[in-house]
Write a structure and sequence with these properties.
Layout lengths: L2 E4 L2 E4 L3 H12 L4 E4 L8 H4 L4 E3 L15 H11 L7 E2 L5 E4 L2 H12 L5 E4 L3 E7 L5 E7 L4 E5 L2 E4 L5 H6 L3 E3 L9 E8 L9 H13 L11 E6 L2 E9 L6 H25 L7 E4 L10 E3 L7 H5 L7 E5 L3 E3 L8 E3 L7 E4 L11 E3 L8 H7 L2 H19 L6 H10 L5
Helix pairs in contact: 1-10, 3-4, 6-7, 10-11
Length: 420
């Protein structure tokens, strides 16, 4: 027999945006449920080997931190565990937070356990959504290895990354760029036995990979990319790439197998052509593929490239973004970057988080309503903490019958330590 439970707010997806949404809602006084289908919180960071948080800082010198709130709580917990001592600069001088996957899993467990009004269910998969005649969501149906559940709520946040709740609820969505294209997805490689003398400048990588391709390594895609160390003998490589045109099991199976084969060939190429990598070993390719660009919520406002690149400010802002538009469109080349004006930040309006078609649905993280270029910035996990917290607070206000008064939501976010 199906079990029925009721909450004020239900959040689907336990990545950066979902965690922040759930904590934000709980801090605003809501009884909140966070549903995650995997065995740990963290999303791409703990399941897809995406070993850094991007988007906490501007590109200025020195970088300015523009995401705090729940994201700051995570950084502080990582620091207490000895796993964070400040940002590092990437090869293109972006300030990133490198991650220890196991420390992050534990830090996120500690974070959600702080709040008595927040319940977390791991290993719980959403399978359907029930809507009312006006299109608002009444409940979601989930399954675990013991049975099925109905979770009812007054407001919902889709932080699934792929718009799974919005899709099942029939909300208005766009797939990829809306014209049959979209950004490539990547299998992240964690390598050890990396020599101290190994160099990972893009030109060095490109020369090695082009030599490998010329010698018959036919599975390799990107000839240039990013490889960064997280320990003296450990590095992460952002190289094996694939287009993900759909989210059915058959398509995803082919994409996973394709990129795993690429990983093996990249390791062989590194050993042969990259000095210092003669004994490197593939430790992990992640539990799943690092997917960038699938379904997007269509919100009451669509954040535009002009707003992002022009560092535009909005009166109804609930979050900040500063990551450059990082566009992965060429399967053979490194990403292209477009930079925010004056190395500053742009505002993300509340309207970008609110579904245009579904009255009680909010989107966060990769679900923020944005055009294809703006999405290349707003999608990253650091910004996901900010948009998630805002979506959770807004959902809590709606569930409490307070509507969505922007000034009051902004005040609550500031009370919670967010940057607005």
């Amino acid at each position: 027999m199906e079990k029925v439970q009721s909450y004020d707010v239900v959040v689907v997806g336990g990545g950066a945006a979902g965690i922040a949404a759930a904590v934000g809602a709980a801090q605003a006084g809501a009884a909140c449920l966070l549903v995650e289908r995997n065995g740990s919180l963290g999303g791409q960071a703990t399941n897809a080997n995406v070993a850094s948080y991007c988007g906490f800082f501007t590109h200025s010198n020195p970088p300015q931190q523009i995401v705090r709130g729940v994201g700051q709580q995570v950084l502080e917990l990582l620091h207490e565990l000895g796993a964070y001592d400040g940002y590092r600069l990437s090869s293109v001088q972006n300030a990133i937070v490198t991650l220890d996957e196991e420390a992050l899993k534990y830090a996120l467990d500690l974070l959600v356990q702080r709040y008595s009004g927040l319940k977390v269910l791991l290993h719980c998969r959403m399978i359907s959504a029930q809507t009312s005649p006006d299109g608002s969501i009444q409940s979601i149906h989930c399954v675990d290895d013991e049975g099925t559940y109905e979770f009812r709520a007054k407001a919902f946040v889709d932080a699934s990354g792929d718009g799974n709740l919005a899709h099942l609820a029939g909300a208005e969505l766009r797939f990829g760029d809306g014209a049959g294209g979209g950004y490539l997805s990547t299998k992240m490689m964690r390598l050890d036995h990396v020599g101290l003398e190994a160099k990972f400048a893009p030109a060095v990588l490109e020369e090695a990979i082009q030599r490998a391709k010329a010698d018959g390594f036919h599975r390799l895609t990107k000839e240039s990319g990013i490889v960064f160390r997280t320990a003296p003998d450990t590095a992460y490589a952002i190289l094996p790439s694939v287009a993900v045109p759909a989210l059915d099991a058959e398509t995803l199976t082919a994409c996973e197998m394709n990129t795993r084969a690429q990983c093996q060939e990249y390791v062989a190429a590194f050993r042969k052509y990259l000095p210092g990598m003669e004994h490197c070993r593939l430790v992990s390719s992640g539990y799943k593929l690092g997917i960038r660009d699938t379904r997007h919520l269509v919100g009451e406002h669509i954040l535009t490239a002009e707003e992002v690149l022009g560092a535009v400010k909005h009166p109804d802002t609930v979050a900040r973004g500063a990551w450059p538009c990082e566009m992965h469109t060429d399967i053979n080349r490194m990403a292209d970057y477009l930079w925010v004006k004056d190395d500053g930040y742009y505002d993300i309006p509340l309207r970008c988080l609110k579904s245009r078609s579904t009255a009680n649905l909010w989107g966060a993280g990769r679900l923020v309503s944005a055009d294809a270029v703006a999405f290349a910035s707003v999608r990253v996990m650091g910004i996901g903490f900010a948009t998630g917290q805002a979506a959770g607070v807004a959902a809590a206000f709606l569930a409490a019958g307070r509507g969505t008064p922007v000034s009051e939501i902004q005040a609550e976010l500031r009370r919670q330590g967010a940057c607005i």
